[in-house]
Amino acid sequence: MSRADETQTLWLEYRRTKDQGLRDRLILTYAPLVKYVAGRLGSGLPAHVDEGDLVSYGLLGLIGAIERYEPDRDVKFETYAIARIKGAIIDELRAMDWVPRSVRSRAREIERAIAQLEAKIGRAPTDEEIADKVGITVEELEDSLTDIARSSIAALTSSGRSPTAAIRSRSSTPSRTPTHPTRRARSR
Asked: Which of 10, 27, 93, 174 has its CA at 20 to 30 Å from residue 103's CA atom?
């Protein structure tokens, strides 16, 4: 009997009996799929996210996929499972992330503005220049920078450079007017 036939028989028997031993064999059969999805997702995440953790979250998705899969829907199990595995991993990462999306979004927006301004003017931009580029007041920029610093954002930007690193490098270069709280403290 071929491996595909064996897997099909396993599926038919599991569907009929819902036996946990058969479910466990299906989990072992499809476990490499979890490692594959976790590896693909992990490559775009910060270094502090452990691939082993991603695999654990993905296994929960695989178990859910096995328990909910309906073969009569004409969807290949692998296709269905990949979506469930990926979803379980992303859900768990989001649940662990206590930083609001609005803060992350604002951090990316400020980071893009800083990078564009640095490229255009050839130096670290002032708070006023950044605020103008983002379309907010300097006070709103300061509030955003405070929120970002509090949340300890680490390298979830597509540029590979963390917003906090950009902010640290920017705040080490004084603007013409010391408006940022850290600059005010240094200028006293």
From this structure: 174
* Last residue in a domain, options 96, 126, 143: 96
% pLDDT > 90, the chain: 50
User: pLDDT, tens digit, for every residue of 75-98?
Assistant: 899 999 999 999 999 999 888 776
What's the whole-model pTM score?
0.57
Give every CB contact of residue 111 below 8 A, 6+ residues apart in sequence: 157, 159, 161, 163, 166
pLDDT tier at 103, thresholds 50, 70, 90: confident
Query: Would you say how long the chain is, in residues?
Result: 188
Q: Return the structure tokens found at 165.
A: 């690193």
DSSP state of 124: P
Query: Does 158 share its domain with 182?
Result: yes
CB 86 within 8 A of CB 37: yes
Query: Do 90 and 112 belong together in one domain?
Result: no
